[in-house]
Amino acid sequence: MILVTGGAGFIGSHTVRALTEAGQECVLLQRRTPQIPAHLADLPIHVVQADVADLDALLAVGRQYPITGIVHLAVAVPWSVSDTGPIEATGAALEAFLNIIRAARAWSVRRVVTASTIGVYGFASEGALTEDMPIPFGHFHAIPTFKKITELLAGHLAEVTDVGIVNARISGTWGPGGHLPDPFFAAPSLAHAAAQRSEPDLSGLITPPHAEDALDLLYVKDTGRALALLQLAEKLHHSTYNVASGRATSNADVATAITSIEPDFHLDIPSGGDHPVSWLDITRLREDTGFHPRYDTAAAAADYITWLRAGNQR
């Protein structure tokens, strides 16, 4: 039985679906409600209301269910510091990660898969990014900064405990249930505009986009399946894996894919930009789990737009 934190969320819900399709029972840890989320109501899952920051409540889950694996996707970055202050919020976020490892050790869990991010590589490199390349340790955003810290902690804790900890460096992910706007890339906003037959609103991006701006984009159904494969693989030879498509996808590529579905769609953003083009090498993931993306850009755009036009909101 696999415990999934953040299992009702964007990537988490698709991971839960992939795990159940692989024959696994899942337990979702939810902070706000004990109810099964409506978008997962068709699955044979269990829900426990508890906060990962509450060790006693977390350990109680293992007394109720025979947990054999953990996929830790709950947001554990100190976003909000208004109530407790930045130092306390950071400490609580770190404690939440440590609680997952404490619980895994108490339950004799074989493997914890924890979410990291493409952002740990920074944005100055060009070409294929491999897991063993040096990563920059300068701070530029809370998410990659915190993920670098937890990756280092994971390496230490895996060495001094009997818990296998796998860092999944997840690439730009889009699709049903995703963020709108996503502050880092335009694809979700473009899909929404096409579904509504309206002009794209790209004002929510951190930096103004260009047609040639590219990122390793992975459709969320593939992301969830890759994470499930990492959890269920009989043997893994590494502690860090890129979860990605293995290719760079530009805004122009997304627009071209959308135009094949919605011929009147037009992307009116400037050419240019000086961002280096890079992508995540997925050799490790492919060799150790057999993962291959099932959705190229055209298939992803078609599936996402169909989902949106069916009355879904994100």
Automatic annotation (TrEMBL):
It holds the Pfam family Epimerase. Residues 2-244 form the NAD-dependent epimerase/dehydratase domain. It comes from the Bacteria. Belongs to the NAD(P)-dependent epimerase/dehydratase family. This is NAD-dependent epimerase/dehydratase.
